[in-house]
Amino acid sequence: MALVQIQETPHWKKLMSFVGPGFLVSVAYLDPGNLETDLQAGADHKYKLLWIVLIGLTFALIIQSCSANLGVATGKHLSQHCRTEYPNPVNYCLWILAEVAVIAADIPEVIGTAFALNILFNIPIWGGVLLTGLNTLLILGVQRYGIRKLEVAIGGLVLVVGGCFCSVMIHAKPNAEEIVKGMFVPRLTGGRAIRDAIALLGALIMPHNLFLHSALVISRKIPYTFDGIRSARKYFLIESGIALFIAFLINVAVVSVSGSVCSNPNISAERKAHCKSITLDSAAFLLKNALGNWSSKLYALSLLASGQSSTVTGTYAGQYIMQGFLDLKIKLWVRNLVTRCIAITPSLITCIIGGSSGAASLIIFASMILLFELPFALIPLLRFTSSEAKMGHHRSSKPVCIISWLLGFCSIGINIYFLTTSLIGWTMTNQRPKAASILIGLAILPIMMIYVAMLTYLTFKTETPVNLEMNSVRTDETGSEKESDFSSIHRAHEIDVENIISK
């Protein structure tokens, strides 16, 4: 199947040729796990944490643009670079961690879809879990008609999520002035606000998204000259900015709906109790009681679209991860079936035994795994995009390097803090003998030490020498552009991408 051709004129048609990867990536910022975090932030703090959402998605745009630049400038995606950069033991560890991240991200999507089916059609949660695999296989069937058709399908699901929440927000009538103030006036009042702010930031960057974006951009057929790559980087940045801006507006709508409903002075005691600990399931009952039955149906429809679109992009990310780390290519439906079975198993068992409350706890556990996993994708990405040997003249500029590394370390620090405090809280607050808590703490300590050691290795490892012909474009002594043998290497990679798309 042919790659997407770029129309050079007019400019709006050229931009439309690049539209697609950013919207597939933006789905991760609208997945059921993010929706639950947004709902709780709005319930607890009304609109006061919207500035956190703005900062988080601005950071996400910087990191995602680094991921796109890596793919555009080198013709290789992140997992392929990891395979050539690290020794086999490290490479296999990174592959396992990346696969675990895909599965962990899939759990909230499976459960969110099951909740949506329960609200819409009164299907038992465990039955909804079983149906999610079939739904995803049907949507993935669209990709047989071309990557553009799949991009349109996912873009449509994103608009469904946005349309549903915007409709509910209009009916909830939040205070527009307070929303704008919440976006641009930073406020953190109390320990609960700090915790929820950390949860909002931690939920935004998904590890598998970094692998996915660097691979999706290679589906465009661009001229591999200095100007061609620079132009592609610019258009992908614009496209990602548009997609993430839409994701930002949807996140604002979710927070605003929750904030408006839960801050209503006439709210009943029962609804107030729901606001203290909102789950994907309880949010439907809250909206139904506050705004009417139609609002819970719209919420369920948005949850269904969110879960399905996130599952599809997660499957694509898993395919690229396996192909890059192991140079192993399997059919997409086989990959999806394996991932579905692995993700469905814990979700199904939890839903049968623990019901809705157990499913909500599993979402929290999956989110903690993603916090743990993020640095193992983020640090290699920042290392590679800062490398002149890999990126040539398209490496990140010094200001971008400084900003991205600072943001990266802040994100990693926030995640480690949130993960550590959550583990400590779980160890100390559960009803168990003090000796048992001490033993659990001693067991966790060496794991955290190994974790820090691995991050230190990834951050400071000496760079593996790269053959100069692997750089995309060099300039000769007169400063004129000279295309290297990279174009033939890129064509070989195009064939790999075509194989993935066609399967």
Automatic annotation (TrEMBL):
The chain crosses the membrane at residues 12-30, 50-72, 92-117, 123-140, 152-172, 192-216, 236-257, 298-317, 337-356, 362-382, 402-426, 438-460. Signal peptide: none annotated. Coiled coil: none annotated. It comes from the Eukaryota. One of its GO terms (cellular component) is plasma membrane. One of its GO terms (molecular function) is manganese ion transmembrane transporter activity. It is a multi-pass membrane protein. It is found in: Membrane. GO terms for biological process: iron ion transmembrane transport. InterPro entries: NRAMP_fam. Keywords: Membrane, Transmembrane, Transmembrane helix. PANTHER family: METAL TRANSPORTER NRAMP5-LIKE (PTHR11706:SF99), SOLUTE CARRIER PROTEIN FAMILY 11 MEMBER (PTHR11706). Belongs to the NRAMP (TC 2.A.55) family. This is Metal transporter.
